[in-house]
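input
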Amino acid sequence: MVDGLERELGERAQVIRLNVTSPLGRQAGARYQARFVPTFVVTDGRGNVVLNRGGRPSKQELLDAVLAAAAP
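output
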């Protein structure tokens, strides 16, 4: 799902995958209060969280959040 979303969004958004067992992944998990694997976090250009969803959201839910975050 993430690969398809990444292809669909192209240059409009950056997709970052983190391993929760890595130091950076643990740091990001703590910052965004990730309690489940997977956790999807969408931020706007200022770093404000638009979506923080543990589990597996629908592709449409993720797409809507990313497009809302990218809106001026």
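quick obs: Residues 19 and 50 are 21 Å apart (CA to CA).
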